[in-house]
Design a protein that fits this description.
By secondary structure, the chain is α/β, with parallel strands linked by helices. It folds into two domains: about 5-25 and about 75-385, Divalent-metal-dependent TIM barrel enzymes (TIM Barrel); about 50-65 and about 390-500, Sandwich (Immunoglobulin-like). It has eleven helices and 19 strands. It has helices spanning about 5-10, 90, 95-105, 135-145, 195-215, 245-260, 280-290, 305-310, 345-355, 365-375, 375-385; strands at about 55-60, 75-80, 110-120, 150-155, 175-185, 185-190, 220-225, 270, 295, 320, 360, 390-400, 405-415, 420-430, 435-440, 450-455, 465-475, 475-480, 495-500. The strands form four sheets. An eight-stranded parallel beta barrel has the order 2-3-4-7-8-9-10-11, surrounded by four helices. Strand 14 and strand 15 (about 435-440) form a beta hairpin. It is elongated.
């Protein structure tokens, strides 16, 4: 069953009911979602008037890197498991799960690996996790290849119906289940999310997952477990099993709050699905955005104007994860090609740049992905050069102030998205004895923009070499950032510059 076919079969044709939620439909452009993440040790970010200096010098500049620079917060995500399982070859017994995961991880353009599985794939009995082997294999491969991992646990799935649900077997007979309609000749069933037995079991699941993965150094993000098909917040054109809208909204909000309370350091990603099933999606999305969690959407070209407006006008410190189910098998030989010579899949994936997205998803078929990239290299290569944020110290000025030297640095972002959190920048000496810096405002520098910041150096560094370093703070966790510049860097991604002596004859004067 194809996700977008199911959605389009009825979702867009629904007659909208009146919205009862507290969050009305609104434009995202200019909407007040709050100030964004708190900035500790906020740096002076200007203005820097010429009358402030006692002489100045442009001591260094950088230009944009032309190759991908791997950092937390962006990348191409290869699927080691999707709603139907691993690769088609693995499902057919033609390769092992270990071979499939290793092949996906070995693709040179894969930065993140992703698992989307059912609840039954992570838990078989109350009070404990029974993770499918794909988790250990994926985490091990990511560790070896300096990759990261994202995952989603689905509470509902069209795959397998009507024979089985996404729920673990130990909930059979304990959680009520309703037939909500028929699709493709099959009965489609949904559990009662509002039932006490479901709520108790779901709370247990969330706590177990948080105990295992909250703050895990390899976990990039965890998708929010939402109502409905594939955890996307809908059941297409079929009704929900809730008795009324208020019960549905209350249940969705409670499920969201439970996950937000459990995952404080690890980003959650909420699907921006319009509320076609009337289950409180607007309230859920608003909660997540205000808490600084991430956004995702599961289609690009065949998508409602509402989602495109939401994603493109989100707060700049929020990353976006994108995928698209059309042509998901990456069969290069069968892709339509337009009059300009661009194939339909490349046209689709390049639209994520228009949205300023951070991630593009790659389905499970490794051999097809490799063959596609060999035949059409432009798509993946362009995404890896432009997706997300790509920051560097573009201009570095030295000024005489306060009887010492001050550095003013213009940080550039050559990517299509703002910084996903707070960029913390520092001037250090190679021996680590001096470390001066702090945070830029959340999301800065924005995509295609500059952000200036000042560093007043201690006396005595004139004539010495210092290093400019960066780290990204997301949900209180700090990770090193490698500058995306063409100039040479240290092994750990810092830029070295030499501080001018004060007796240099070439100092400029502002006044």
């Amino acid at each position: 069953m194809k996700r977008r076919d199911l959605f389009l079969s009825g979702g867009l044709g629904l007659t909208r009911l009146a919205a009862y939620g507290d969050v009305p439909t609104h434009r995202w452009e200019g909407y007040d979602f709050g100030p964004g993440p708190h900035v500790a040790d906020r740096l002076n970010q200007g203005p820097f008037g010429i009358e402030q200096d006692e002489g100045w010098f442009t001591i260094a500049t950088t230009s944009a890197a032309t190759e991908p620079v791997r950092n937390f917060g962006w990348g191409l995500a290869g699927y080691t498991w999707e709603e139907g399982g691993p690769s088609l070859a693995a499902r057919a017994g033609k390769e092992t799960l270990e071979q499939h995961v290793e092949a996906m991880s070995s693709l040179p353009f894969v930065d993140v690996m992703y698992i989307r599985c059912d609840w039954r794939d992570v838990q078989k009995s109350p009070g404990r996790l029974d993770l499918n082997p794909v988790f250990a294999l994926t985490l091990d491969a990511a560790r070896r290849r300096n990759q990261r991992v994202g995952f989603r646990v689905q509470l509902s799935n069209t795959v397998g119906q009507p024979a089985r649900l996404a729920l673990p077997d130990f909930l059979n007979g304990k959680v009520p289940v309703s037939v909500i309609g028929r699709y493709d000749g099959h009965e489609m069933r949904e559990p009662h999310y509002h039932d006490p037995a479901f709520k108790a079991a779901f709370k247990d699941l969330v706590e177990l997952l948080a105990r295992e993965f909250e703050g895990h150094p390899l976990i990039e993000y965890v998708d929010l477990m939402q109502y409905g098909y594939w955890g996307e917040g809908h059941t297409a054109n079929l009704p929900s099993p809730f008795p009324d809208y208020l019960t549905a909204e209350k249940t969705s909000v409670e499920m969201t709050q439970l996950q937000m309370d459990a995952f404080k350091r690890t980003p959650l990603a909420v699907n921006t699905q319009p509320d076609i099933s009337q289950v409180g999606n607007r309230e859920v999305i608003d909660m997540m955005v205000r808490a600084g969690h991430w956004l995702r959407s599961d289609s690009v070209i065949v998508e409602e104007p509402e989602q495109i407006e939401i994603l493109s006008n989100r707060p700049p410190w929020l990353p976006v994860i994108m995928e698209d189910g059309y042509y998901r098998q990456y069969r290069a030989s069968s892709l339509p090609v337009d009059a300009g010579g661009m194939n339909a899949l490349e046209n689709t994936m390049l639209h994520v740049l228009d949205l300023g997205a951070n991630y593009w998803s790659l389905w499970t078929e490794t051999a097809n992905l490799r063959a596609y990239h060999e035949r059409y290299p432009n798509g993946f290569d362009t995404l890896r050069r432009r997706l997300g944020y790509r920051v560097r110290p573009s201009w570095i000025w030295q000024r005489k102030r306060y009887g010492t030297s001050e550095l003013v640095v213009a940080f550039a972002n050559d990517g299509v998205a703002g910084v996903p959190g707070v960029l913390r920048v520092f001037v250090t000496t190679p021996d680590g004895r001096v470390r001066i810096g702090g945070g830029l405002d959340a999301g800065h520098p924005y995509a295609g923009k500059l952000r200036l910041a000042s560093f007043v150096l201690p006396k005595g560094l004139e004539g010495q070499t210092v290093q400019l370093r960066a780290e990204l703070e997301t949900r209180g966790v700090r990770r090193p950032v490698r500058w995306a510049c063409a100039q040479s860097l240290t092994a750990d991604g810092a830029l070295e510059v030499r501080i001018k002596p004060h007796n240099d004859r070439n100092w400029r004067k502002g006044v």
